[in-house]
Structures are given as structure tokens and as C-alpha cells.
Amino acid sequence: MQSYPVAHIDLIALKHNLARVRHFAPNSKVMSVVKANAYGHGMVDIARALENSDAFCVARLSEALQLRDAGIQQAIVILEGVNTTAELQVAAENDLSLVFNSLIQIQLATVTTLSKPLKFCWIMIETGMHRLGVQADKIDIALQNVARSDNFIDPVGLMSHFANADLIGDTRNQQQLTRLKQCAQKYEVPLSMANSAGILAFPESHCDWVRPGIMLYGSSPFSEKSARSLYLKSVMRLSASIISIQNLQAGDEVGYGGDWTAEKATRVGVVSIGYGDGYPRQLSNEGTVMMEGKVIPILGRISMDMITVDLTLVAGAKVGSEVLLWGGSYVHIDNIAEQIDTISYELLSQINERVSREYHHGEG
Ligand SMILES: *Cc1c(COP(=O)(O)O)cnc(C)c1O
Fold this sequence. Notes:
Blueprint: E1 6-10, H1 11-24, E2 29-33, H2 35-40, H3 43-49, E3 55-58, H4 61-69, E4 75-78, H5 85-93, E5 97-100, H6 103-111, E6 122-126, E7 134-135, H7 139-148, E8 157-159, H8 171-184, E9 191-192, H9 196-201, E10 209-210, E11 236-248, E12 253-254, E13 260-261, E14 266-271, E15 288-291, E16 294-299, E17 307-310, E18 322-326, H10 333-339, H11 344-350, E19 356-360
Parallel strand pairs: 1-19, 2-3, 2-10, 3-4, 4-5, 5-6, 6-7, 6-8, 8-9
Antiparallel strand pairs: 1-11, 11-14, 11-18, 12-13, 14-17, 15-16, 16-17
Helix pairs in contact: 6-7, 10-11
The structure holds pyridoxal-5'-phosphate.
Pyridoxal-5'-phosphate binds near residues 35 and 214.
């Protein structure tokens, strides 16, 4: 019996979702986004399972090194780039690819003498997000500097990132894409724009390389369209188990602050997962879990290591019984995220190393 929480990861569902990327963007190459521990799914195992990706994207150098050290062979693109000479050398030595988000990052890469040239690098263009990126009117200078340097072996591509791709048909998406294409007009270089939402709903944005994240893990980037309607399959099934049972009398309070009070005699199960595992505390007194196919309410506040649930509907529940937090066919994480006014990206990436991950081929 496994009494601690487990994230069961379905690698067949993951591969199915990558096939969905190829279905939607058949003429583009795919950089699978595995930043933030592959959205909580375990970065190295996910990258290995996504061996059909043409490249991978991470946010930071440390993540890229973890993949390279694990023997991942494909190009690994560091979305935030690097900011010091030492980091730049490490990136070059490990065949890592950089996104340059400012003229300063480009200058660092052109003036430093590197032991090995950089492969498959990108310049991020500011097209409307106003987060990272080189201003569109500086792209000519940026590309000239790159062309003069011996530090690059492949043509440096141009990419940008949608601020509103989850809003299908929003005119700002077209504007951002137009700005990217205008910058690229004079150059024969690879282009990349689309995240999951762009892949699914804006074919014109596919360009040479797409960058799927959330859709690989089986969630929808849209509030208006369900994952099921897009034929995406949930990859993570999060479970824990009953570690204790309490028989309460009317008037008894449960947990910190006594935020839930029994109105009648109630059988309460204590479940081995809490916010210390990354389970969201906002589900206190609001959320539900599943046991034996039944939806049952969470009672009182979520603690660091535990939650308490109402066992009224599951007479057979005992210590060791499995509790499903999300995943499987019934409790879609997108619905839980919506219930507490957040997105599945946050819920998934918060599941931390205290939760063991088990990899299955099929639903585990
Ligand atoms: C995280 C990220 C992605 C993936 O976005 P999804 O919405 O998860 O598909 C793509 N591009 C960049 C630059 C990112 O930071």
C-alpha cells in the first residue's frame, strides 16, 4: 500500500497529445516545452518519453543542464537565455541553445570568446507582451551583430510570444504575428510564434517551429473549449490515500480554525496530501475528491500534509483506500482550476518533489 501521494503519469496519453500537436501543425517542427519540471510531471522522464520532439524548451540554464546530463540528445532551448560570461560558456560547452531577450544578452554572446560555437539560437522579438524581447526596430542591428560573430553555427531564428492566445480570434494575436513577420521579411531565418493556444486555434501562427506546453499534458489553454473537445488526454492522475478515520458527533469541528462543523454524526477520512505537496489550499471547504467513483466533499481547511473528506457516501472506505484528487476520466484538472480561479498550469507545476511520480504506459 502506498500511503503517500502519487502522481501517476500516463506516457501513452503524453505521446497521444504530441501526436495532436503534429495533427494541428503538420508542417512545423516541434519544440516541446518541459520547463518547471515538465509542468510538474517530471522533466527528464517526460523528455525521454517525448523522444519524437524535434527540440526541447526550458526556462533556465539549470533545467537545460539537467536534461543534457540525463543524455537528452536534441537541441535544448533556454527561453530566458543567460546573463553572465560563465553561464554562456557552460551553455556552449553543453551544446545548449539560447534565446536572446535583449541587446545586452546578444552583445554578451557576440563579444565573448567561446570554446565552442552556439547552435540553434533565437532572438525573442517584443511584439506586444512587454515582458522579454528585443524591440522590433533593433532587430536589424541585432542580426547584423550576430552575422559578424563566429560564435553561431546555425542561422539565428526569430521568435515571439502571444500575450492573449487563449482568447480565440482576439485581434491582438493577429497584430503580434504581423509584427513578427514584418521583422522577418528581409531574412531567411526560422520563425516561431505558437504556444499551445496558437497551435490549436491560430494555424497562421504555426510558422517553422511550434512550442507546445500545456496541451502536451492534456489541459486546454482555453476557458471556452474543453480538453476533451480538443481530444487531449490528461497525463497526470493525482492520488493519495486515507490514513485515518474519525467518527464525529454533531457539533464537532474539523481542522485548523474549526472551519467545518458536523451537523450530525459524520464519518471523516484524513487523506495524505496537503498544500506542502502543492495541493491548493484554496480548495479548503470548497473542493471535492473522488472515491470509488463518487464525488465527495473536502471538509475544513487544507493542512500542510493532510486534508479531511466526508466519507458518508463511501461506506466501504477504510485506512489505505485510494483517494483521487484529479485525473482519470472524471475529475478534470481544468475544472478544479476554474473552480478556484486559476489555471491548470499553476496547479500542475506546483506539485512538488514530495509527491512521488510513477510512470505508466496507459492509465496507472
Ligand atoms: C511556457 C512557454 C510556452 C508554452 O506555452 P503553453 O501555453 O504551455 O503551450 C511557449 N513559449 C514560451 C516562450 C513559453 O514561455
